[in-house]
Design goal:
Blueprint: H1 5-10, E1 16-18, H2 27-35, E2 40-43, H3 49-62, E3 67-72, H4 78-87, E4 92-96, H5 104-109, E5 113-118, H6 121-130, E6 134-138, E7 144-145, H7 153-163, E8 168-171, H8 177-185, E9 190-193, H9 195-198, H10 207-215, E10 221-224, E11 231-234, H11 237-247, H12 252-259, H13 263-269, H14 293-310
Parallel strand pairs: 1-9, 2-3, 3-4, 4-5, 5-6, 6-8, 8-9
Antiparallel strand pairs: 7-11, 10-11
Length: about 300
């Protein structure tokens, strides 16, 4: 087993971070990943403040290992969530979807380690200047909300490693040990994995959504709502309508109305495979079965070590 700087920073044994995926990353998944020696994250973006506090406390009841919270900066309850994170003494926070400067000083003042998710090397430089402990550089392949610049992980990682001195965590398109080994060879010191953990026993997503993920083929995901909020999803009736509207030049207000409210919850939490938003990465085509989170961590680490040993 090998360790990198992120292991020391976040108090983990394996340089794998489970992505904080709304409606999928509850305390059960976070605890299972952390118990396996990696870093599990609770997704604050789909929780009310009271639910977030409850999830943090439940996670602490079932694991003594470090875990964290993913906090989208644009989240409507972000300020309340940040206060709860401080009050509950969560050891690690991964922020995303906004300025890394918004909460970093407050978190670090309270002894919390901070990483920020971004999509370009120049954004990573801003993250370092804001004082984060590590940066997650996410490629265009990733599921869910995406950067507008469409840089792939292969392009993003080495440029970001060259641009900053803090540890870089690669994300987007990584679902097995081969992808992890590739990221390490590009200079990353760890990987953040989302889609593969969606198809885990402990993930809180609806069984219909998990089934859709394992049945998806290589070309079944699309980036929709590019002018509103670029989001990678499995193509279904809702996604088809969104693509048609964009191609017809529909304005932002009408696209927002089409998106409406609760699409993410409908698709991923409630299992509406027709009209819900089914956020997943391009690696969905690689995922063929639902496994325990600990098995995913062990398999990824073993395969990565075998790949690196071959070379």
């Amino acid at each position: 087993m090998f360790k990198t700087r992120i292991c020391g920073i976040f108090g983990i044994n394996i340089p794998i971070v489970q992505g904080g995926m709304v409606w999928n990353s509850g305390y059960e998944l976070a605890a299972a990943v952390s118990e396996a020696g990696a870093l599990g994250l609770i997704a604050a973006g789909s929780l009310s403040p009271a639910e977030l506090r409850d999830q943090i406390r439940r996670c602490r009841e079932v694991t003594s290992r470090n875990f964290g919270v993913n906090l989208p900066v644009f989240f409507r309850h972000a300020d309340e969530a940040a206060q709860i994170i401080v009050e509950e003494k969560v050891p690690v926070v991964f922020t995303s979807g906004g300025s890394p400067a918004r909460f970093t000083n407050e978190f670090k003042h309270n002894g919390i380690k901070v990483a920020h998710v971004c999509s370009t090397p120049s954004q990573a430089v801003k993250c370092e200047k804001a004082g984060v402990d590590a940066v997650v550089i996410e490629g265009f392949e990733a599921g869910g909300h995406n950067g507008r610049d469409e840089l792939t992980t292969m392009v993003n990682v080495p440029q970001t490693v060259d641009a900053v001195s803090i540890p870089v965590i690669a994300a987007g398109g990584i679902a097995d040990g081969r992808g992890m080994a590739a990221a390490l060879c590009l200079g990353a010191e760890g990987v953040q994995v989302g889609s593969r953990f969606v198809a885990s026993l402990e993930a809180s997503g609806h069984p219909n959504f998990k089934r859709a993920v394992v049945e998806a083929q290589a070309c079944d995901t699309f980036l929709i709502l590019r002018r509103l909020m670029p989001t990678r999803v499995i193509l279904n009736e809702f996604a088809g309508k969104a693509l048609e509207a964009e191609q017809a030049g529909t304005d932002i207000e009408k696209l927002s109305a089409l998106l409406g409210h609760g699409r993410e919850e409908a698709g991923m939490a409630c299992g509406d495979l027709r009209e819900g938003e089914l956020e997943i990465g391009q690696v969905a085509g690689m995922i063929k079965e639902i496994k325990p989170a600990a098995w995913i961590v062990r398999q990824m680490l073993s395969e990565c070590e075998n790949v690196l040993r071959r070379f």
